[in-house]
Design brief:
two-stranded antiparallel sheet; 14 strands; globular; 8% strand; two-stranded antiparallel ribbon; 560 residues; mainly alpha
């Protein structure tokens, strides 16, 4: 479908192709609009195609990598002979990238491909007579609004990553870049104009009014860093309207796990404003599992996947076991000991019940007899440095397997080994034997984000008490009632400082593709953390890739 057009989209945006500006030639492998759109199903199939690409952009690799592996919570360490990968992870962690970096280039191309798909279908849908396809004018208005909202979401990646970018609406004309202020205004206009045409509480995985309004909150929260003009007042207004139910009915899930087990056995969390659904063998949540899980983890979690043993939390402890003294990083130990999220991940019953967000300590085999939990008599062994020895994940990075000589190499991105680092299981990978593996959604926007955004606006405006109340409305679910009074910000208002707010954002949104943006907004992105010194200059956005500059002579470097 639209093969020629979509090829030109990619080439125009990523690698110069003058011939693609001529779309008049006869192409025999292309379905024209009047042939393809024969019924309602064909329209819906076209509509959801860029959503599939959207999941890939947000949750399958490079965009997640730029958001998280350049920040203080995650790292992909070299583990012996594995994971050096041309020094990619060392450069990203140390903020030593350049305009030839593949991850940066793919983070330019990916959103623009999605924008190109949206442009194609927007043009198609505008010319369709919906009444001939068992659809209404209201359906048409909604579909156009969804595509414009999805396109705005793609643009949010680009303004965040690069600031000055082309605004592309026709897939044909080679465009120069617009200023960040112009890009911001375009995104704002698209969202505001689309919002009324969207439904309230729409289908899972599709943009609705709550989702579009939430994107406005994201836009306004970061306006000062993106354009130089603060818009926190606007962010607060929209956030309050979302909480009040103006754009749909949402509520904080009483279960701390609820937003991340959405999709399991038909459960839909009332907290999730936008999520990308998954299903085994249809659309799987595979990249994050592979990137984070050890090759042997399948024996503990009951599945048949191998994993790449790459990404883990940055270490909280040095080679002696003492806590580091950096303000940033140390994500695992930033959780209080009584925090339910901090406990090791373990299934607690059949049917998808589980607790905890992390794999830490000794790994045991899945208990096949009771069909949940672990068999404490069967330890999982390593295969590399700890070959045939118990595999025990530690909140440290170092060559412990080499003894004293190995520890002289220090704790760095290139001195990991197979058991280095705490592994995140916030998005649960549940037993394959129960047909639950890969059925959880990727949570794109939660009501918790709106609560935290409003809290931040009030905190910045000097209303710390109101901010504390909003944060506590979410945080309370993470603690047993007996432990809560000591953790409440309302009850301990002096605890809520700038540094604490940044830490709390990290705890709540760990691994949800927020961290780099949050650190930039709070002027923390250039600070030091584990194995990373203070940045010598502002690196809060990425250079426009050289391949993009070579493809489009109208583009100019963005001074990075």
């Amino acid at each position: 479908m639209h093969k020629r057009i979509l090829l030109c989209v990619f080439l125009l945006l990523a690698g110069a192709a003058p011939s693609c500006t001529n779309l008049d030639e006869e192409v025999f492998d292309t379905l024209t609009t009047d042939i393809y759109y024969q019924d309602k199903n064909s329209v819906i199939a076209a509509l959801v195609r860029p959503y599939e690409h959207g999941h890939w952009v947000g949750w399958d690799g490079d965009r997640w990598i730029l958001q998280e592996l350049t920040a203080d919570h995650f790292v992909w360490t070299q583990k012996g002979k594995h994971g050096y990968d041309g020094g990619d992870w060392i450069r990203l962690h140390g903020h030593n990238w350049n305009a030839d970096d593949d991850h940066i280039y793919r983070s330019w191309v990916g959103p623009f491909q999605g924008i190109g798909q949206c442009n194609v279908f927007l043009q198609d849908f505008k010319g369709l007579d919906y009444s001939k396809l068992d659809l209404t004018d209201a359906d048409k208005a909604q579909h156009l609004a969804e595509l414009r909202t999805l396109r705005a979401w793609f643009y949010l990646f680009l303004i965040d990553f690069f600031r000055s970018i082309p605004i592309v609406e026709d897939n044909v004309t080679l465009k120069p870049q617009s200023t960040p202020q112009e890009v911001f205004a375009f995104i704002e206009k698209e969202l505001k104009e689309s919002l009324p045409g969207l439904p309230l509480n729409g289908r899972a995985g599709r943009w609705d009014q709550g989702g579009a309004a939430s994107l406005l909150v994201r836009l306004y929260m970061n306006a000062e860093k993106w354009t130089g003009t603060a818009r926190f007042t606007d962010a607060a207004q929209i956030a309050q309207e979302i909480i009040d139910g103006k754009y749909g009915n949402y509520s904080i899930d009483p279960d701390y796990k609820g937003p991340f087990r959405s999709g399991i056995k038909g459960y839909r969390s009332p907290e999730n404003i936008m999520e990308f659904p998954h299903a085994k063998n249809i659309y799987e949540f595979g990249w994050m599992y592979n990137a984070m899980m050890h090759y042997q983890t399948r024996y503990a979690l009951d599945n048949d996947w191998g994993g790449w043993n790459g990404i883990h939390l940055t270490p909280s402890r040095d080679l002696t076991g003492s806590l580091y003294n950096h303000k940033l990083g140390m994500p695992y130990e930033k959780y209080a000991d009584g925090d339910k999220r901090k406990q090791p991940f373990h299934t607690t019953g059949t049917g998808g019940e589980y607790e905890g967000f992390f794999l830490i300590g000794q790994l045991y085999e899945f208990n096949k007899d009771q069909k949940f939990g672990y068999d404490s008599t069967k330890m999982v062994n390593g295969t590399e440095e700890w070959n045939s020895k118990p595999l025990r994940f530690v909140d440290q990075v170092g060559r412990f397997s080499e003894g004293a000589a190995g520890l002289t190499k220090g704790s760095h991105v290139n001195t990991g080994e197979e058991n280095s680092g705490v592994r995140m299981l916030k998005f649960p990978w549940l037993p394959l034997s129960e047909n639950l593996f890969h059925f959880n959604s990727a949570t794109e926007i939660r009501l918790a984000e709106i609560y935290y955004s409003l809290a931040e606006c009030k905190y910045r405006n000097g209303d710390k008490a109101a901010a504390a109340k909003l944060l506590d409305a979410v945080r309370k679910r993470n603690f047993e009632p007996s432990a809560w009074p000591a953790q409440s910000y309302e009850a301990n208002l002096t605890k809520l400082t700038d540094d604490e707010f940044v830490d709390e954002l990290g705890r709540e949104f760990l691994g949800e593709r927020h961290r780099r943006t949050d650190l930039v907004r709070w002027n923390r992105f250039g600070e030091e953390w584990w194995d990373k010194p203070k940045d010598p200059k502002d690196l809060s956005f990425f250079p426009i890739p050289n391949r993009a500059l070579n493809a489009n002579p109208l583009l100019k470097p963005n001074d990075q």
